[in-house]
Amino acid sequence: MSIYLDLLRFIAAMTVFLGHASGKLTGGFLWQLNDYLSAAVMIFFVLSGYVIGFVSDTKEHTIKDYSIARVARLASVVLPAILLTIIVDYIGVQINPDLYYGGPWQEPQFDIINYVLSTFLLQNLWGMNLNPGMNAMFWSLTYELMFYIIFAVAFYFKGIKRIIFLTMALAISGPDIVLYFPVWLLGLMAYHLTKKTNKTLENSKIFLPILFIFSAFSLIVLTPFIKSNLNYTPNIMITNKNILADYISALMFTINLIAAPSILVLLSPTLKFLSKYIVTAASLTFSLYLFHRPLIQFFATFNTEMPESLINRFSVIVGTLFVTAVIGYWAEKQKYTIKKYIKKWM
User: Fold this and answer.
1) Using CA atoms, how far apart are residues 226 and 36, in angstroms rounded to an integer?
2) Structural domain tally of the chain?
3) What per-residue confidence (pLDDT) applies to 109?
4) Which domain holds residue 214?
5) What angle do CA 16, 301, 322 make, to 5 degrees?
6) How far apart are CA 174 and CA 111, in angstroms?
7) Quick one: DSSP state of residue 108?
8) pTM to 2 decimals?
9) Which of 127, 200, 270, 291 is the most buried (most CB within 10 A)?
10) Can you tell me whether residue 63 is helix, strand or coil?
11) Residue 9 phi/psi, 5° resolution?
């Protein structure tokens, strides 16, 4: 199951990366992936809830252990991503300012407050949308941070402390984050249900595989239709306009996770054979998610006259992957160092 989760994480990260690399910057290359971008982020949210369900159930039995692990995980990639964004954006603007201020993407936000808030992942509370430079992908990390905090308060605290701190966390988050918290909770639910699923496979030889195939089919084939035709958002102060489609994508993916053990019994030999490659690729997904947007913009600055050319597409895609692999490999290892220093200070 862990190898399967790594595979899903890699597929979702590549979908976001290639989806953002498509469009005008590469002459419409892989434009079809644009319909899957929001669904891919929902997959990340559900996977996050699933992983937190696992670690809180098996490893991190105190709020201290939980907090150290979350801070180390986030800081190891967030801090290099901030620095990379500053450097790459600065150079890119000097080379081709027109692409940054008149290009197909929203203009960069270079105010110092954006970088300060983004360092602490507070830039998107209440839909402030103060992401750093060209790195719009930071928007979802505020969601992740608040999901972690809300869960920690509900899981590790009791009595009046739980009520007070939970109320504060929800109030600080704002309506966008609160409305998407159930998506994250679907992952938490999926973890606990898969524990039971593993014990009941003998009684579900037909039903669970059918659910698995149906959910996979829905995500792959129906997502573009769902995104285009289901646009409903509650009439309150939120910035996301596709919440119904996001919920459907999250629910289909959750069903896939719950039913997965019934199929993984058959796929186990293949997954184990490919495990080394899958785990290695998956270890860089957080870095790819946070590094790719400014890198795509940067590599696109060198060939704006012919964005559809093979050279431009190669430099944008391969260049981004290469830088991500080099820096990401180092960054991902820093979580262990950060964790060690935090424990020493505490």
Assistant:
1) 10
2) 1
3) 84
4) 2-345
5) 50
6) 23
7) P
8) 0.92
9) 291
10) helix
11) -60, -40
CB atoms within 10 A of CB 274: 13
What is residue 71's predicted lDDT score, i.e. its pLDDT? 96
Model confidence over 11-52: pLDDT tens digits?
Answer: 999 999 999 998 888 888 888 898 999 999 999 999 999 999
Which residue type does 257 have? L
**pLDDT (tens digit per residue) in 82-136:** 999 999 999 999 999 988 888 777 788 889 999 999 999 999 999 899 999 999 9
How far is Cα 299 from Cα 174, in angstroms, rounded to an integer? 35
User: First vs last Cα of the chain: how many Å apart?
Assistant: 34
Q: What CA–CA distance (Å, rounded) separates 88 from 229?
A: 37
CA 150 – CA 322 distance, rounded (Å): 36
Residues 57-87: tens digit of each pLDDT: 999 999 999 999 999 999 999 999 999 999 9
Cβ pair 292, 317 in contact under 8 A:
no
Determine the residue type at 27: G
- DSSP 8-class letter at 218: I
In degrees, rounded to 5, the angle at the alpha carbon of residue 140 between the alpha carbons of residues 188 and 211 is 40
Contact 281, 10 (CB under 8 A): yes
